[in-house]
Amino acid sequence: MEVSSFPKCQKCGTGDLVPLSDFGNQGAPIHYKAWVCTNPDCGYNLKIRNGDVYINEPIGNGINGRQRNPVNF
C-alpha cells in the first residue's frame, strides 16, 4: 500500500510528519524508526529506540553522543 500524503504536524500545523528508516545492528531494516516535521523551524520529532519512544530530542549531526530519556506511557 503506497501512502499518497503524510499527516500534518500537530505542533506547528504547517509541516508534514515524514517517516525515516534505519538499519539495526544486525543490518536488518527498521522501517518508521522516526517521524520528523518537514518544517525546519518546528523541529518536532518522534523516535523509537530499543522499544522506547523519545519525543522532541535535540536534532544534531550525530557526532556527539547524548543521554536520551524515553517517554513513559
Explain the overall architecture:
The protein contains no helices and four strands. The chain has one domain (1-59). The mean pLDDT is 81. The protein has strands spanning 17-23, 29-37, 45-49, 52-55. The chain starts with 16 loop residues before the first strand and ends in an 18-residue tail after the last strand. With 73 residues, it is mostly beta strands. It has a four-stranded antiparallel β-sheet, with no helix packed on it.
Summarize the topology:
Layout: E1 17-23, E2 29-37, E3 45-49, E4 52-55
Antiparallel strand pairs: 1-2, 2-3, 3-4
Low-confidence stretches: none
| Global shape | globular
Helix content: under 10%
Write down the secondary-structure element order. EEEE
Major beta sheet, strand line-up: 1-2-3-4
* Helix/strand/pairing category: mainly beta
**Number of helical regions:** 0
Mean pLDDT: 81
Distance between the termini: 30 Å
Beta-strand percentage range: 25-35%
Please name the defining characteristics of this protein.
73 residues; mainly beta; 4-stranded antiparallel sheet; 34% strand; globular
Quick description:
The chain has 73 residues and is mainly beta.
